Amino acid sequence: MYYVKAPAKINLTLDVLHKRNDGFHEVEMIMTTVDLADRIGLEVREDGKIELLSLDRFVPNDARNLAYQAAKLLKDTYRVTEGVTITLEKNIPVAAGLAGGSSDAAATLRGLNHVWKLGLSLDTLAELGAKIGSDVSFCVYGGTALATGRGEKIEELPSPPACWVILAKPTIGVSTADVYGALDIEKADHPNTKLMIQAIRENDFDLMCETVGNSLESVTLRLYPEVAHIKEQMMKFGADTVLMSGSGPTVFGLVQHESRVNRIYNGLRGFCDEVYAIRLLGDRETLA
Ligand SMILES: C[C@](O)(CO)[C@H](O)COP(=O)(O)OP(=O)(O)OC[C@H]1O[C@@H](n2ccc(N)nc2=O)[C@H](O)[C@@H]1O
Ligand SMILES: Nc1ncnc2c1ncn2[C@@H]1O[C@H](COP(=O)(O)OP(=O)(O)OP(=O)(O)O)[C@@H](O)[C@H]1O
After folding, report:
1. Residue 139 Cβ < 6 Å to ligand 2
2. Does the model's ipTM exceed the 0.90 cut?
3. Which domain, by its residues, includes 231?
4. Rounded to an integer, what distance in angstroms lies between the CA atom of residue 170 and that of residue 187?
5. Is 273 considered catalytic here?
C-alpha cells in the first residue's frame, strides 16, 4: 500500500471580485495548508477497476467521491490500463470549508502519478485537478499560495509566520454553492490581498492578524448564527485573530503563544464537538 497525505487548507483572505458569465465567481484568495490531514492508501489492481473504501458515513464511497473522480479522470485522460483500490481515512471534517474533498482528490492525483508511473508534472496535475473543483489545483501543490481566477490559478508564496491554529466546526455542513448564491458583492467585506502578501513576505504576525478577511463570511454568519457565536467565543478566549475559512462553517483562530492554546481549546470544547489545535504547515516540502 502506498500512502499519501491530504492536508486541509484555510483561507487567510478570500476576496470575491465579481460574478462571471460561467456562473463562477472571480476570486483572489491566500490559502495555506494546516497540519490536519486525511490519509489515502493506494493499491494498484491489475483488473483495471477503481474501487473506493471509506469508513466515514458522511462521505460517499462511489463515483460521487472526489478521490474516485480524480482516479477516473487520470485513468481516462492517460488511458491507464491498471486500476486502483483507494482507502480513505477521513480526519478532516466534511463540508466544513477546509477543502477536505478537494485535498483527497489532489492527493489521489499525486499518489497515482507515482504508483501508475505517469511522470506528470505538478502543473499538469493541477490543471487536471481544476476539472474536479476550484480548490483542487491549490491542494495539488499545498504550501501557501495566491489563488486567482475561480481559484485554479496558483502563485506560490513563502510560509506565513509560524503560529498555532485552532479550528472549530459547528455541527452543520454548508453548501459552497448556496453561500456564493446568497452573496451581495457590493455589501461584502473585501480583504486587502496585497497587504496580506506583504505580511507573509515580511513574516509580520501582527499584520497578518490585522489583514485576514473573507467576503463570504457575512453570508454564512447571517445564515448560521452559531458561526458568529463561535467567532465571539474564540476571540474572548484569547485568539490573536479569528476568521471563517472558505464558505464555512469552520472558524479558525491564529494564536502566537502556546500558553494560550489550551485555554482556547478547552473553552471551545465546552460547547463545540469538533475542535482542533494544530500548526500551520505553510510550505510545499511538507507534502513530499
Ligand atoms: C470557498 C472555497 O472553498 C474557497 O477556497 C472555494 O471557492 C470553493 O471551492 P470548491 O468547493 O472546490 O468549489 P467547486 O466545487 O468548484 O464549486 C462549487 C460551487 O461553488 C460556486 N463557486 C465556486 C468557486 C468560485 N470561484 N465561484 C463560485 O461561484 C459555484 O456555484 C460552484 O458550483
Ligand atoms: N473525499 C471526500 N471527502 C469529503 N467529502 C466529499 C468527498 N468526496 C465527495 N464529497 C462530498 O463533497 C461535499 C463537500 O465536502 P468537502 O469536505 O470537500 O467540503 P469543503 O470542506 O467545504 O470544501 P471546500 O472548502 O473546497 O468548499 C460533501 O458533502 C461530500 O458529500
Report:
1. no
2. yes
3. 164-284
4. 25
5. no
